[in-house]
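During the no-cost extension, the postdoctoral fellow (Dr. R.K.) reprocessed legacy sequence entries with the updated structure-token encoder. One reprocessed record is reproduced below for audit purposes.
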Amino acid sequence: LARYLHSMARARLLPAKLALAHPKHDSPYVSSLVQVITAAVLTVIVVVLKVPAASAFAWFVGVGTLTISILMAVTCLAVIVFFARNKLQTHVLRTCVAPLLGFIGLAVSAVLIAVNFPLLVGDVDSLGEPAWGTVSIVLILLVVVTAIAGAAQAMTLRFKNRQVYRQITQQLNH
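Re-encoded structure tokens follow.
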């Protein structure tokens, strides 16, 4: 995670301080510190709220699993779009068929994860059966709101700071 924060800060998507590297070890020490502080804050919240460790673990795994499935599905689509736009002479199996099959599999997985989210995160009713309750709704909303915020940031950057947006897209194309 620290490397992602560091890279995003270097691309001017996050505060510049997160892009700092340790003078001796060249490690992303500020981003690492932010990651450790974030984990500590989340741990304190879980302890203060007296959330059982297994439940907290299930929540984080549930959100992570759904999010990674969605991101990987979107990445498969991005591969198809990239090769279609750039008209590169490549094998159709690698640039269209395989990513499309990956997208279909990952999209189906994401839907199944979302539909069964209460089971995954341990959200149960009074009988102990998986049910859509506060935990499931809040965690799903966390995923949705984060995706919307990311898309909004990208669109804002695209229209308000074209130079940074162009720099990022050029780096991604090379």
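Helices lie at 2-10, 29-48, 53-86, 92-115, 117-121, 134-160, 162-173. The chain has a mean pLDDT of 92. The remaining legacy entries will be reprocessed before the final report is submitted.
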